Automatic annotation (TrEMBL):
Protein name listed in UniProt: FG-GAP-like repeat-containing protein
SUPFAM superfamilies (UniProt xref): Integrin alpha N-terminal domain
Lineage, opening ranks: Bacteria, Bacillati, Actinomycetota, Actinomycetes, Kitasatosporales
Alphabetical UniProt keywords: Signal
Native source species: Streptomyces lancefieldiae
InterPro entries: FG-GAP (IPR013517), Integrin_alpha_N (IPR028994)
Signal peptide as annotated in the record: 1-23
Length: 407
C-alpha cells in the first residue's frame, strides 16, 4: 500500500504529427499540433491527437470549468511536473498522472478523459502529499547533544527532495524549507552534534564536483547559516562520511570516514576553531566491506558514542562501541540480517521519549511485506535498548518515497 491512488494510464505518443504525412490526413479546417502549445504552458485538446480546440494554462487550476472532463490529449511545456487529476481541487485519491516536462512535439494521448484539475509542482510526491515526509517524535527526558537542531529535545529530520531542496521536520508532522536549491550537488550529508562550538547542531556536506567538505552551522532554529569550508579537497576519496559525536573525549564532535583505496577507517577530530584536526586511524582495514555507517550516540551507556555498521555481504548490523581511549572496541552483532533492505539510516537520537537513542530507517525496493519485495519508502523505526541492541522494527509510515536522502 505504498500509493493509495491509481495513476492514470497516460501514454506518451511522442512526436505525433510532427513532420510526418499524418499531419495532412485530418486536413482543414482545424488541424492542430502539439507545437501549437507555447513554451511555459500546459495545453490540452478536445481531440486525441492535439487536434480540435486547445486550452492552455501556466498556473495551477483547481476546477477546469467548461473544460472539465474535456481534455483528450495534452502536453506539458512548463519546467514543472504537472499533476493531472481525475478529480477537482487536486484531490489525488481518485487518480492522477504526474507528467514530467515534455519536449517540443511530444504528446500525451488518450485515455485522459476525466481530467478535472491540474497542479504544477517540483517533485512527483507533491501531487499527493507534502514535499517532506511525515515525521513525529516524542520529547526526550534528556538532551542527548545530537539529533536536535532547534534545542527542544525532540528529534528532528532533515530531508533532501528530488528537486535538490532541503526541508526541516521538527517532529510535529510539519516541515519547513531550509535549503532552496542546489543540494543535489552534495554527495554526502551528515549531522551529529556541534562542530562550530556554539552549542547548536550543524550539518556537514560533501560537494560532489570538487570533493570539498562544507560545514553549514545550525542557527538553533532548524535553519542553516553561511557555510564554511572545513575540507579543501580530496573528500571524494572517502566513503561513508559520518558525523559521529565526541569519540576523543574533548567535548567536540568528531567525524569518521572510510578511505576507499585502503579500506581504512579514519577519525577527523573536531577542534576549537570549528575545523577538523589531524586525522587518526581507528580501523586498520577491511572497512570497505561496510556499506553504511551510523553514528548512533552512546547506545551502550559507556560514555562515548558508538557506531553501527552494515556489512554489505551479509546484511548484518554490527555495533562498534566507542572506548575511553578514543578508539572502537570489539564489535557485537545487533542485527542478524536483512538490513540491506534499508536505503537510509537516520541516527537522530531519542525519538521514542525514553532517553535512549533510537534508529530510524527508510526502506529500498528490496524491502519485503507479506512475502513480496518492492516496498520502498517505508519509515521503519527501532527503539534503542540499554545494551545497545534494538527492539523489533515498527513500520511507522509508508510514504517516505520520492525523496533524495535524509540526515
Ligand atoms: Ca528538535
Ligand atoms: Ca554549531
Ligand atoms: Ca572530539
Ligand atoms: Ca558508548
Amino acid at each position: 500500500m505504498r500509493n493509495r491512488f491509481n495513476r492514470g494510464v497516460a501514454t506518451l505518443v511522442g512526436l505525433a504529427l510532427a513532420g510526418t504525412g499524418l499531419a495532412t490526413v485530418n486536413a482543414a479546417p482545424a488541424v492542430a499540433s502539439s507545437y501549437d502549445c507555447p513554451a511555459g504552458y500546459f495545453c490540452g485538446w478536445t481531440g486525441e491527437s492535439a487536434n480540435g480546440s486547445m486550452w492552455k494554462t501556466n498556473k495551477s487550476v483547481a476546477d477546469l470549468g467548461s473544460w472539465d472532463n474535456k481534455i483528450r490529449s495534452y502536453v506539458n511545456r512548463t519546467t514543472s511536473i504537472a499533476c493531472v487529476y481525475e478529480d477537482k481541487d487536486y484531490v489525488p485519491w481518485g487518480g492522477y498522472w504526474a507528467q514530467e516536462p515534455n519536449s517540443p512535439g511530444e504528446l500525451n494521448g488518450d485515455p485522459v478523459a476525466t481530467t478535472s484539475s491540474i497542479k504544477f509542482v517540483r517533485t512527483e510526491r507533491e501531487c499527493s502529499r507534502p514535499a517532506y515526509p511525515s515525521w513525529v517524535s516524542e520529547t526526550s527526558p534528556t538532551a542527548l547533544g545530537f539529533g536536535d537542531m532547534n534545542g527542544d529535545r525532540k528529534a528532528d529530520v532533515i530531508t533532501r527532495d528530488e528537486a535538490g531542496r532541503l526541508w526541516f521536520s521538527p517532529g510535529d508532522d510539519t516541515g519547513r524549507l531550509i535549503g532552496t536549491a542546489g543540494w543535489n550537488g552534495m554527495s554526502a550529508l551528515t549531522r551529529h552534534g556541534d562542530f562550530s562550538r556554539d552549542g547548536r547542531e550543524d550539518l556537514i556536506a560533501r560537494e560532489a564536483s570538487t570533493g570539498k567538505l562544507w560545514l553549514y552551522p545550525g542557527t538553533g532554529t532548524g535553519s542553516l547559516g553561511t557555510r564554511e569550508l572545513i575540507g579543501s579537497g580530496g573528500w571524494n576519496g572517502m566513503s561513508q562520511i559520518t558525523a559521529f559525536g565526541d569519540l576523543t573525549g574533548d567535548g567536540r564532535s568528531d567525524l569518521i570516514a572510510i578511505e576507499k583505496a585502503t579500506g581504512k577507517l579514519w577519525l577527523y577530530p573536531g577542534t576549537s576553531t570549528g575545523t577538523l584536526g589531524t586525522r587518526k586511524l581507528i580501523g586498520t582495514g577491511g572497512w570497505n566491506t561496510m556499506n553504511a555507517l551510523v553514528g548512533m550516540g552512546d547506545v551502550d551507556g559507556g560514555g562515548r558514542p558508538d557506531l553501527y555498521a552494515r556489512e554489505a555481504s551479509t546484511g548484518k548490523l554490527w555495533l562498534y562501541p566507542g572506548t575511553s581511549t578514543g578508539t572502537l572496541g570489539t564489535r557485537k552483532l545487533v542485527g542478524t540480517g536483512g538490513w540491506n533492505t534499508m536505503a537510509d539510516f537516520l541516527s537522530v537520537g531519542d525519538f521514542s521519549g525514553d532517553g535512549r537513542p533510537d534508529l530510524a530507517t527508510v526502506t529500498n525496493d528490496r524491502y519485503v511485506i507479506d512475502g513480496s519485495a518492492g516496498h520502498l519508502g517505508w519509515l521503519v523505526t527501532y527503539q534503542g535498548r540499554a545494551t545497545g541492541a534494538l527492539a523489533a522494527g515498527q513500520r511507522a509510515d509508508g510514504e517516505w518515497w520520492g525523496l533524495n536522502g535524509f540526515c
